[in-house]
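Example record

One chain of 203 residues, shown exactly as stored in the release files.
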Amino acid sequence: MKNSSRTTVLLLLMAILTGCSWFGKDEPEYLDSVEGEPLQIPEGLDSPIGARPVVISAPKMRTPTGDELEPMPPRVVSTAGKQDTNTFMAWSAEGVYLMVKDSPESVARRLRFAIERSGMNLLERDDTGAHKFQYRHERISEDGFFKKMMFWRDGPADYSGTYRTGLSADGEETRVYLFYPDGRSCDTQAAEVVLGVFMERLG
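Predicted structure tokens for this chain:
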């Protein structure tokens, strides 16, 4: 009995030690791999052309901020009838803008007149169209266009303040953006209201 017990114990120990050695040598094949010599191309033959990666690029988009993150109905996405008008509002990565079917030089001059004739206070005149001005917000009439467009709001907002325009050529047309004096993009609602005044004047 003692001999059989000893034999059983020895067999178990051998199995355990053998298993440990198996697990200890179970290493990935790449650890033993060796880098080969570069492929030698015989003279007169072309080198093989491998698959080239496809580079996909996209322009960097501005991250939505402020009121743009609020779950509100779209306001300036309609382009209906834009072919029949000289000005219309649209949306881009830089935010809402006013598209004017005219050259930047002409739009810069027309904007200056629009600021002065709409009762705004022109603070700085710029030949490139970066006019700095003060806007005094007037209460929207009950039957006005913007009142209907902003039907989801509870009360009238006041967008009075200092702004600066910025022009960007788009082919033969011009985009008019609205900024704060420090260069930050203007909030969407304020831009809609102020650019809406220009849209009426320049249209």
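Notes: DSSP finds four helices and six strands in the chain.
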